[in-house]
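Chapter review: from sequence to fold.
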Amino acid sequence: MKNPARKAVRLARSIPRLLRTLKMVYRHGGYSTVQVADIHCGEILKGKRILITGGSRGIGFSIAGKCVQEGAHTVITGRNRDALDRARGEIDSPLLKTVVWDVSRISEMEKGLAQAEKALGGQIDILVNNAGIANGVSFPDVTEAVWDDMYATNSKGLFFLTQALCAQWMAQENDQIRKVINLSSQGGFVGAIQPYRMTKWDVAGLTQGLGVHLAPHGIIVNGIAPGIIATDMQPRFLEQQDNAYCALNPLKRIGLPNEIASLAIFLMSDAANFIVGQTIVCDGGYSLK
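The token string follows.
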């Protein structure tokens, strides 16, 4: 009698979880979990000095955490001091520094770079262009203000920061490899009628162009195009909590920030020094549909 009793108890205990799962399937159209290995390379970036724009949350925050794990001196930027302080507290490492900096303000570019280098204790070795804003406004409802605001950060700021830093690097020709990693989007690989997606087309094109132009100077430029990732830029999917289901891509799930971060670590490392001008799409197959 004991064995049937135990089975009955286990069944009873599983009913609430089953009901929660059924509720999520009903609300969101399906249910999916994510199985991802957290890669630790063993200080593969030790001694590197890395600047990550927009690193107080989301993908940038996850990249910063992994950079610190891999031994890199890392500085993250953002517009909000409180958000930066929270990020620094969560990562909790002396290798991480923060700089309040709005990269859309072109006139402050040199000042921002100087502050970042001071915080890092030396010259920057790797730039991760992650800062970006999103807005779902689309044709035919786009205003000039929406357009200008989107391009100021996602395209213009990225371009002029990269130009300013790479000009310094090119003026100091040496045998050291420097790197630029640009965060584009799956939206940069499909048809675009939104300013957001159009800025990401810009980033993907710039990555190719700079890859060819800067490789002879020992500067390797590559990019990552994330798909739908569990960040606050995707509030609809964050509401699903532990349900990763997403009907919009063939894999039927959303991605996690640390999946993008693991890819970024690889591209930043010397293991990827023969990859030039490529933007690697990480979107669960969305852009292949």
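Two observations follow directly from the output. The domain at 32-288 is CATH 3.40.50.720 (Rossmann fold). The beta strands are 49-52, 73-78, 96-100, 126-129, 178-183, 219-226, 279-282.
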